Amino acid sequence: MPLLEFQDIHTYYGSVHALKGISLEVEEGEIVTLLGANGAGKTTTLNTISGLLPPREGQIVFEGQVINGVPAHEIVRLGICQAPEGRKVFSTLTVQENLNMGAYSLGNDRNAIEENRRRVFELFPRLEERKNQVAGTLSGGEQQMLSIGRALMARPKLLMLDEPSLGLAPMLVRAIFETIKEINEGGVTILLVEQNARAALRLADKGYVLETGRIVLSGTAEELMRDERVRKAYLGEE
User: Fold this and answer.
1) Which residues contact 83 (CB under 8 A, 6 or more apart)?
2) Cys staple from 193: which of 42, 53, 81, 146, with CB 3.0 to 4.6 Å?
3) pLDDT tens, position by position, for the chain (238 residues)?
């Protein structure tokens, strides 16, 4: 049984039909990437899973449980966390306070919170160095680390990353992707939206290509890397 199933999902923004019958599966332990141009429906897919945009039709199934209509904060408790596009850190709070906000679903379990914070600092030593620094004064790369670290504080089974490399220097992009791989090897399933299609496919097990709210291609990462349409549209090859 897949960890996550998206079954014929239709999502709307008011009267705008954003997702038009999307079906996909994420198996436990996988890295799955969503590819597509701006406006294709990638972020909408993540926000629908997160409970921020309830679907009008179809079912979302997580660990065998239908989660349609479950409030977003309860979806976090079930084990789905998202690091949003644009980082969205709490700019007036310190690094440590941001991480504590990510752990709200753990309640007063101080041991779990401390263990999760220790793990985040192992992944991102820079955050430990800056734990008392106000998040708004961090560099873009450090804010991205904080966004991912904050999501990890809730101990997710499924971590959804929306454009983690956006606006970062190439050296930082490599570091972020190496960390995503390390997070996955630590037992966290990853659903990745990423503009850098080549880097995403090198990292992923499989992928789905979205166009105007529909899935037009899917397959293993290797299959998609070889597909002529993907090579032309997303890998910049003739």
Assistant:
1) 144, 147, 148, 150, 151, 159, 160, 161, 162, 164
2) 42
3) 899 999 999 999 999 999 999 999 999 999 999 999 999 999 999 999 999 999 999 999 999 999 999 999 999 999 999 999 878 899 999 999 999 999 988 888 889 999 999 999 999 999 999 999 999 999 999 999 999 999 999 999 999 999 999 888 888 889 999 999 999 999 999 999 998 999 999 999 999 999 999 999 999 999 999 999 999 988 876 5
Backbone torsions φ then ψ of 183, nearest 5 degrees: -60, -45
Tell me how far apart the alpha carbons of residues 121 and 83 are, in angstroms, rounded to a whole number.
Answer: 17
Q: Which DSSP state fits 209?
A: E
Neighbours of 168 (CB within 10 A): 19
The amino acid present at 132, given as its one-letter code, is N
**Domain map (residue ranges) of the chain:** 4-79+156-233, 90-152
Q: Can you tell me the distance from the alpha carbon of 198 to that of 204, in angstroms, rounded to the nearest whole number? A: 10
Q: At what angle do helices 110-123 and 95-102 cross, to 10 degrees?
A: 120
How far lies 211's CA from each of 27, 133, 155, 184, 192, in Å? 23, 41, 32, 27, 16
- The structural architecture, per CATH, of the domain 4-79+156-233 is 3-Layer(aba) Sandwich (3.40)
